[in-house]
Protein 1
Amino acid sequence: MKQYSGSVFLYTNPSVLENVGTSRPLLLFLPWLGSKPHSYKKYIQLYFNHGFDVLVAESSLHHFLWPRTGLEYAGQLLDLLMKEKELSSRPLCVHAISIGAYIFAQMLVKSASGQQEQRDTLKRIHGQVFDSLVIGSMEKMAVGVATMISYPVFKPLVVRGSLLYFSLLKAQTSDYYEQGIQTFSESPIPCPALFFYCMNDPMSDHVAVEHLLLDWKSRGIKAQGKKWKSSIHAGHLRKHTKEYTETLDSFLQELQVSSPKSKL
């Protein structure tokens, strides 16, 4: 493992000894808030099975609560993928879970107003996976914040406090969220996309996810979804291991970016 910062780590596939740092595909993995290496190692292994190295970029609560810092972090990730020699020429895929998709949306926003090289970096993305996308009303976001930082008994209080915070600091919070959601929805990366979601997720409106899928398909994007009636936010792999793994494996095989040296 190579560490680039306190929150960004490169995991090198031990089963692939050739093409290190050159043509081997790279996954940008953007996990859920508060995740630790032991909790996302199963995701890393899924991509190791397809010959990927995995660049993990963890998120912090302040990236969400004060979006300017999230936008700065997104720019740093773009610069790393653009300038770091061992990362700068690889084919990319993205797998974002929960708040990780927010960071990816900020990468889209940042690239739109940034350097041409940043936009070119995003053009290297061949596939994108979104798991437990936080989408819907501001109430959904407030529930997400409450789930992240409080015990269940304090959840209603935190939800009300979060909504007040978003209202009082609209220009510094909700305006950024709206811009991110709009850019993510209306200016997507035009490559295949896979969404994992469920009908009982309090932080993700499954109807909104399905509307997004239909909209992307109308734009010519090969988008597909895997939906469960009952599951766990950011826990679909744990709850539905076999279905999740089979769906992801099929998606990656269709992309044809896996290393030929991978051990399946």
Protein 2
Amino acid sequence: MAELVVRHLGLADYLPTLEAMRRFTAERDASSPDEIWLLQHPRVFTQGQAGKPEHLLAPGDIPVIQVERGGQVTYHGPGQLVAYLMLDLRRRKLGVRELVTAMELALVDVLAGYGIEAAPKADAPGVYVNGDKIASLGLRVRNGCSFHGLALNVDMDMAPFLRINPCGYAGLKMVQLKDLLQSPPALDEVAQRLERALRERLGYV
């Protein structure tokens, strides 16, 4: 079975990370290990390939970057845990829908570990708590290999979400772990739990 390399990258600028992810995907071959990168980004809006400009309400001083992942506009910032999944789906015999389901269930597992009941929605990728969105997903597959990934709101400034229609949904309320727990966990701890959950749901254990 192909190995999985997990990198904990801390706070990393968005554009250099995006370029590194694209380069890794373009240059990999059948023997390249799969990788998951866990990190945070400085404040940035990213607009997916189907993104509509009207969902950017008032970006202001926060940069907007066009990307090739699926989905609409979302926000990344410090205190949000981002996971980029660079997997050879053909080698693992995984369909895109199966990958999305595994990512969503891994997030549900992590939240359950904190006593939070969460669930995906069939018609709107991501993970929700009482109808409010706590995690977003956006993927791209090229030559049978995935890149981009997911973002889980942990302990961040949520105000920039009010400058957009998150994921293209006007009025969608975004929540974070900090709002649902008496004492929010450290982001590094959440990252370790997410790594374990992804390994289990994707069969890398």
Protein 3
Amino acid sequence: DMQRSFAVISLALAITFVGVLSVVRFEDGKHDLLSIFFETMSAFGTCGLSMGITDGLQLGSKIVIMMLMFIGRVGLLCFVVMLGGKSTPDKFHYPKERIQIG
């Protein structure tokens, strides 16, 4: 569990860092770093807050924001599994039973 939580935090930091850098690169100094950081974190967190700069963003920045919204909504682990594809199914599995006690 500790490794999974560390992986989720590391992946979230990496994705948001790449998102912020991408938007900064697309915008080329039109907006300040704090506004861009707020927009990307709000998109990833799917909280619906905005600094009001979304309308003025370039097309590439809007695509990055949309991707961050999608990843944040679906969830990191589900997104990674979706990208990884389907693994080979097990040839057999043990039966499981939940016994009700009490």
